Structure formats: structure tokens, C-alpha cells
Amino acid sequence: MATKITKTIFRDREVDEDRFAIVKYGVEIFLVNVTKGIIVYLAAALLGMLWQTLVVHLSYLMIRRHSFGLHAKTSLGCTITSVVMFVILPYFVKEVQLSEWMIVLISGLILLNIAIFAPSDTENMPLFNAQKRHTLRRKSIFDTILVLALGFLAPWAWMHICVLMGALIQSATINPVTYKLLKRGYNNYEKDTI
């Protein structure tokens, strides 16, 4: 499908092999992400969790955009992990009630985790530039404060839980303990690249 779409994009133009491959790769990524999104949100709709899934997912993505973190090794693994993180986990905690103090405590732990460990690179995408890491850390902290504040101010208790869950999932993806448990390289920018 990606090949057909890419050929359609370039139907009236002559294009070299490298450019075609780059565009085709982008189309493949787009199609894979759309497919994953459909699967996740279809599962959420079937369980009556559409709004909860959306809030968890958006909270996660808002923080992840600057803090990065682990990725699944395969597209299938990513899809399964996404269904578990954004649909199944929220399904089991949707009725949990937390006091304001518990929300503040959990929020503080999430913020501390982000402040210490963000941004977190991967073996494929090490963050070599120290200035960029510093800038991304500041942005990650800001994103986290914003997301947690919005969650805390939300008028519905279920939203507090969903925002915390999204932020907690993202903070887990950058934590070195998670990297160690999954046997993945951490602080890849420190490794010798020669």
C-alpha cells in the first residue's frame, strides 16, 4: 500500500530512488500509526473507554514529545503495548478514588522522575548534544507541570486518574529501571560511537 501511495504522490514527476525510498518510509510510518490508532481506539470504544483512553493518551503524548523514552521493538509489540497502556490499564483503574493529597504525592513523584531522567534516548536515537538534552529536560518539566495541573483542575475524578496514568506511563518509559528490566541500553549518548 505504501508503494502505491508513494507512486501516486510522484505520478507526474521523475524522482530518484533515494527520494522515493524516503517518502515511502514516511508513508509506511503514517500507515502503521493510523492502523495502531484505529486498533487502540476501537478497543477503547468496545470497552466504553473512549474518553478515558483519549485523556490517558494525550497526557502521555504531551509529556513524551520532549522527554522521549522507550519504544517497542516491533510494530506488533507497540500495538499490543498501546492497547494495554491506553485501554486495559485505564479500564481497571477508572473507578479508583484518590484524595487530593495522594494526587499531589503521585504528581510530585512523576515530576521528580521527569526532572531527573528526561530526556531519555534509545540505542537508535542517542541524544549526543548536551545543550539539546538540557533544553528538552526543561521543556519536559514544563509539559509535565502543565499536564498535571490541568488534570488536578479537571472537574471529574476519572480525569484526575487518567491524567496521572498517562503521566505515570510516560515517566516509566524514561526510567532507567524500566530500561534495565527490558534489557535496553540507557544513556546511549555516553557510549563510544567509534
Write a concise synopsis of the structure shown.
Pfam families: AgrB. One of its GO terms (molecular function) is peptidase activity. Helices cover 73% and strands 0% of the residues.
Total number of strands: 0
Q: In angstroms, what is the radius of gyration?
A: 19 Å
Percent of residues in beta strands: under 5%
What summary fits the major beta sheet? Answer: none
pLDDT < 50 runs, ≥5 residues: none
Net shape:
globular
Span between termini: 38 Å
Helices and strands, in order, run as HHHHHHHH
Briefly note the structural class of the backbone.
Answer: mainly alpha
Range of helix content? over 70%
Mean model confidence by pLDDT: 89
- Helices, by number, come to 8
Describe the structure.
This protein is an all-alpha fold and 194 residues long. The protein has a domain at 50-73 and 97-190. Helices cover 73% and strands 0% of the residues. The protein is built from eight helices and no strands. The protein has helices spanning 2-9, 17-46, 50-67, 75-93, 100-117, 130-153, 157-174, 176-181. Helix 3 (50-67) packs antiparallel against helix 6 (130-153) and helix 3 (50-67) runs parallel beside helix 7 (157-174). The mean pLDDT is 89.
Keywords:
quorum sensing; peptidase activity; membrane; globular; 194 residues; 73% helix; cell membrane; hydrolase; mainly alpha
Provide the fold topology.
Elements: H1 2-9, H2 17-46, H3 50-67, H4 75-93, H5 100-117, H6 130-153, H7 157-174, H8 176-181
Helix pairs in contact: 1-2, 2-3, 2-4, 3-4, 3-6, 3-7, 4-7, 5-6, 5-7, 6-7
EC number: 3.4.-.-
GO molecular function: peptidase activity
Protein name: Putative AgrB-like protein
